[in-house]
Specification:
The chain has about 350 residues and is of the alpha/beta class. Helices cover about 40% and strands about 15% of the residues. It has helices at about 5-25, 50-60, 80-90, 110-125, 145-150, 165-170, 175-185, 195-210, 240-250, 280-290, 295-305, 310-325; strands at about 30-35, 70-75, 100-105, 130-135, 155-160, 215-220, 225-235, 260, 290-295, 330, 345-350. Helix 1 packs parallel to helix 2. The model is unreliable at about 265-270 (pLDDT under 50).
Length: about 350
């Protein structure tokens, strides 16, 4: 397993640790779809995404409190040999709790998703709260129109591997036009140049066509520093954004944006109190100069419009320093307020 693959699985595991109890406490059903499931275990013994997803739930400290929710796992693998190995690995887990249901399909994602989409249309009812993990080996087999139909319910989320490097090299050669049009749901990719623009186009399609409110990417870099691929999370939930940001900052405590094989295991000097929040400060000044805003608005802006996390980076690491520099003023300080405290309802004015 390459380091960036392990980091991808860490990101998935961190997010599932938050997702399971959130969904399990308000819904009677939760669905996890792993559409390119693989053999379950790598040759070095490392668990693959299906085993990680199951073990994250079964070992969760909150699992005993989630008995009222049935967790349905759908693992899809088209290769017969990998499928047989996955089946054997699931069997090794033994008898699963009654509220953990596993379905294995030796098929491709498109065929199974087509069945589910038709069932949804027939019953006129969307999926239960669902996290679909789509981790294809290339760019084929994940058509946008099918993702749109399958994950149309407000409680459905997408976590997908986007092979931007491969697309950047071949999208305009004419060799993969059909796959590109299925992936993007448009031929607009023909007029796009460079990986950032391709990522922007795909995220725009997830937003405008698949109707996901919030879309965010995480960069995976190879040893040579070149992007291997991007992981894209799409959700309609602000809480989903918050929990994915939690996961991203755990995998990349320096910037919350990327993982590099080159630096795997080396750590970083710029973590914790040493994270550079200068870009957050600049974004706040740019957007709120001469205006006033309450702390809740600034937290939402930080969460949805920046790379940073409001609970970790906004108050003590950014606003407190801006206040000390005279760039902001608290309009409604309480009688016992100390500089650097910004409780709920705090009104702040930004200087021009």
């Amino acid at each position: 397993m390459e380091p960036h693959t392990r980091a991808k699985h860490d990101l998935l595991s961190h997010y599932l640790k938050a997702w399971y109890p959130i969904i399990g406490r308000y819904s009677q059903r939760a669905v996890f779809i792993d559409a390119f499931a693989g053999p379950g275990v790598y040759e070095d013994g490392s668990p693959g995404s299906p085993i990680i997803a199951l073990r994250t739930l079964l070992d969760h400290t909150a699992f005993t409190t989630l008995r009222g929710c049935t967790f349905n796992f759908l693992f899809i693998e088209s290769d017969k040999k990998r499928f047989a190995h996955l089946d054997a690995e699931i069997t090794k887990l033994g008898t699963l709790p009654a509220n953990v249901q596993v379905m294995l399909r030796n098929s491709d994602f498109v065929a199974v998703a087509d069945e589910l989409a038709l069932l949804i249309i027939d019953k006129k009812k969307g999926l239960a709260p669902t996290l679909a993990f789509l981790d294809p080996f290339g760019i084929s087999g994940v058509p946008l129109n099918l993702i749109t139909q399958l994950l149309a319910s407000d409680k459905c989320e997408l976590f997908i591997t986007f092979m931007a490097d491969h697309l950047n090299r071949f999208a305009r050669t004419g060799q993969i036009d059909r796959h590109c049009e299925e992936l993007f749901g448009t031929d607009a990719y023909r007029n796009v140049r460079g990986m950032p623009a391709l990522i922007d186009l795909y995220e725009k399609q997830l937003h405008d066509v698949a109707n996901f409110t919030y879309v965010r990417e995480f960069e995976m870099l190879r040893t040579d520093g070149h992007p291997a691929y991007y992981l894209i999370h799409a959700t309609r939930s602000k809480r989903g954004v918050e929990k994915m940001k939690d996961a991203m900052w755990k995998v990349d405590p320096g910037s919350g944006f990327s993982f590099s094989d080159r630096h795997a295991g080396q750590g970083s000097l710029f973590v914790g109190d040493h994270v550079d929040t200068g870009p957050l400060r600049t974004a706040l000044v740019t957007n709120f100069a001469g205006k006033k805003a309450n702390i809740e608005r600034l937290e939402e802006f930080t969460l949805l419009e920046t790379l940073y996390h409001p609970s970790s980076h906004l108050k003590r690491k950014t606003l407190a320093l801006m206040e000390a520099d005279g760039l902001i003023t608290v309009l409604n300080p309480g009688p016992r307020r100390r500089r650097g405290d910004y409780p709920a309802g705090t009104e702040i004015r930004f200087l021009k």
